[in-house]
Amino acid sequence: MPKKAVPVATTGGSLRIWTVSGQEIAAVNPEDFQDARALKKHLEPLCKVPRFRQRLTWKGDVLKDDARLESISKLQLILLPYTKASQKEVDTFVTVAAKGQVEEAEQILQLPQNPDKVEKSGVATPLLEACRLGHVEMARLLLEAGANKNLGLVNGTPLALASRQGHQEVVRVLLKASAWVDEASAGYPPLFLAAAAGQAPVVRQLLKARADKDLRTANGNALGAASSMGHADVVRALIDAGAVKPKGLTDTNMLFVVAFKGHLDVMRLLIENRIELHRPVHKRDHLAMTTTLFANGNRLFAMWIIMPACTLSSMSEDPTSWKKPLLVGAVILSIVALYLLGGDEMKREIRGKWAAFFEWKYLCLCYIRHYIMKYK
């Protein structure tokens, strides 16, 4: 079968570019290009090779990238393979990328050296290091050189690393280069990592790029991770994007998890949007909450805001449960303790929103004593 002809970019120009085999690949106007480097960029989609692997020769001499083209009418294009770099040279390239040394990286790419080779520990390439450390210009250069924007190793893809670290400009560059927004080569997609790390601006970037807001991992989804870690801004961004089903490492009600950890702002967001509000809480979680409440005291006082709205309502589905009165007492006791040990601002908030509970505090304490004595 005959080979498919290389497309010719015919503009009626006086400068013609030929391949080594004698085939004309382009005819251009030299005044349209500032220098040889600009012409190489123009030839990239025609020869499918980045400028670093192109050599333009005129009368047997290789043109430098800054060479002017006005007086030239014919050029030969030579396409070079990558050099066989040693492991030491590969490691050096990764180090150069990690330091953001763009000029040194340009020289290495001109050898030309493959930008996708992995350093000796097997965890990084030049692009992965540049993205992890937020070197925008280095990332641009490596992408221009044809580095694989979706190559993921043990720590994830370039987009995943940049997202987790909150490097917004690097994320923008990768998204513009059409990096896969939901790629989870290391088990966690970029959105999950950004959400877990509290990188709200990056989360918004990824959502705008149509990242799957509900994509599930072994540790849950983005909304679950952000809620569990207490990142209210991220939770708000995900809810605004339509996320309503938080998933965590286990199937525990996320409102319960958030309350257990004391993330008040996240708790309010979930309640206001009626997320997890009526999903039952597992009995083992009720027992763990009550036990830990008495054992650890003020670490868990945040439960005062959620248990009346979520846990107690879910327990009403079990009319035979003996734990309900005990749980009521535990909730009110946590409010009392929070009031006694909290600061002035917390006391004002409790007086304003939950004053009615204090009329029942002694009754609740009686409930607690009664059921502890009965079921000890």
TrEMBL record:
InterPro entries: Ankyrin_rpt, Ankyrin_rpt-contain_sf, Ubiquitin-like_domsf. PROSITE patterns: ANK_REP_REGION, ANK_REPEAT. It comes from the Eukaryota. It holds the Pfam family Ank_2. Keywords: ANK repeat, Repeat. Gene3D superfamilies: Ankyrin repeat-containing domain. This is Ankyrin repeat and KH domain-containing protein mask. The gene is mask.
